Amino acid sequence: MKSLKYLFLFFGIFLSQSAFSQDQDNIIEERNEEKLEEKEDEEKLFHFNLQLKNMHLWRGYHVSNSPVTAADVNYTSKNGFFKAGLWGGRSFNGEYTEYDYYVSFMHKGFTLAVWDINNTSDYPDVGFFNYDRAETSHFIDVSLAYQFKKIPLKVSWATIVQGRDTYVDDNGELKNAFSNYVEASYVILDKEDWSLAGFVGGAFSFMSDANFYGDHSTINNVGVIYNRDLEILEYTLPVSATASWNPLQEYGAIQVAVNLF
To answer: pTM of the entire structure?
Structure first.
């Protein structure tokens, strides 16, 4: 799969060069958030959002096949340049639990984000602040994204820089794999109260054949997202349906999400 790695490397160089020349659960989800924020007071700096999903998808993963509630508490600067918050998710059956910290910076179409993702579902006895790569439930994800202005295209590159993203080298030592996930999404139709977008994402590691997302480099997330505003009495609820397919794991799913507030 060396050709795929070179393709992703070219993509990353393109994204980095764009940043100099013009100064990582999604394009439709961000559109939902923007709609909610437009209705809020511009002087309000602290925000709280609650989302209900029938399941939880993230970069081709079925993180939870049970219904999930997801809460986001954040501070956003008045000019929108800086955002910091806490994100938590829990499934109805209690098998999935997650608690994350994040910060992001937005400027002229670019978004730089750092997430400390802590999915404790399979790590019930690990200390909350244990970051030992051999034991931790955490992984730190750094991403750079660019939203084009003249076309509804968004590209992003995310790298896991620390945590439970590991491989064993030839000397038998546990090392960080520094797994990468690259995605492109495009809004196909954008109407007043609904929109449709498509996306494709792939994963790889320069350190080993296997990576955080699978046992080899490949496309691992393909799908479409339908978004609409649902009118109920005097309320407007942003609703999205994501139909995705993971060619690597050979499974598909449809996630339906409702932003309650």
So the answer is: 0.84
